[in-house]
């Protein structure tokens, strides 16, 4: 199920305000009809965020990436006068602000092209390839071709073998 940005923000605020029971927060509306606070907040956020980009893969990646320098800055504390932790904190806050700016941006065409470049770009392709190589490390060795720098997969435990690159047709010898 896909949640809109307003639903994501409202669910976050609901758990922050009352993590035990979300049904106990009630607001009395003008007509006397009872409405949960979270429903009123969702309606307000839907009106505010109408026509906005929302959180896509790139925004979520920026948020997750910001967690690492933020965590390190908290762990370092005031080490060396606080300068290293302050720099990491500023980097983390810049990433978070960039992610939030992308989420509330009304220029959806530009944000969608940025997201498609991120998803289809060389960074994500390299990241996925790295994950695949890591998951297959038990049974295969990965070598780079000296001619074209492409990764080649060979089975482990075969001794010294001649590896032939299908892209540039060069041969090299490696131990598996």
Structural description of this entry:
The chain is an alpha+beta fold. 53% of the residues lie in helices and 15% in strands. The strands form three sheets. The protein has a two-stranded antiparallel ribbon with strand order 1-2. Strand 5 and strand 6 form a beta hairpin.
Topology:
Blueprint lengths: L4 H13 L8 E3 L5 E3 H12 L8 H20 L6 H22 L3 H13 L1 H14 L4 E5 L6 E5 L4 E5 L6 E5 L1
Antiparallel strand pairs: 1-2, 3-4, 5-6
Low-confidence segments: 22-32
* Broad shape: elongated
**Rg result:** 25 Å
Taken as a percent bin, the fraction of beta residues is 5-15%
Can you give the helix content as a percent range? 40-55%
Count of DSSP H/I helices: 6
What does the main sheet amount to? 2 strands, antiparallel
SSE run: HEEHHHHHEEEE
Give the terminus-to-terminus CA distance.
Answer: 46 Å
Mean pLDDT: 79
Give the domain tally.
3
SSE-based structural type: alpha+beta
Strands of the largest sheet, in order across it?
1-2
Number of E-state strands: 6
Provide keyphrases for this structure.
176 residues; 15% strand; two-stranded antiparallel ribbon; alpha+beta; 3 domains
């Amino acid at each position: 199920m896909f949640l809109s940005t307003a639903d994501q923000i409202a669910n976050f605020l609901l758990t922050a305000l009352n993590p035990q029971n979300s049904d106990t927060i009630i607001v009395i509306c003008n007509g006397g009809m009872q409405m949960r606070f979270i429903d009123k907040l969702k309606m307000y956020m839907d009106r505010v965020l109408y026509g906005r980009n929302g959180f896509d893969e790139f925004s979520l990646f920026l948020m997750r990436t910001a967690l690492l320098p933020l965590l390190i800055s908290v762990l370092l504390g005031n080490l060396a006068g606080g300068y290293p932790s302050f720099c990491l904190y500023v980097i983390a806050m810049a990433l978070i602000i960039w992610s939030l700016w992308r989420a509330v941006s009304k220029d959806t065409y530009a944000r969608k092209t940025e997201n498609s470049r991120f998803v289809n770009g060389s960074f994500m392709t390299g990241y996925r390839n790295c994950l695949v190589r890591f998951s297959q490390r038990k049974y295969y060795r990965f070598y780079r071709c000296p001619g074209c720098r492409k990764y080649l997969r060979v089975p482990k435990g075969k001794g010294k073998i001649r590896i032939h690159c299908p892209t540039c047709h060069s041969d090299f010898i490696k131990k598996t």
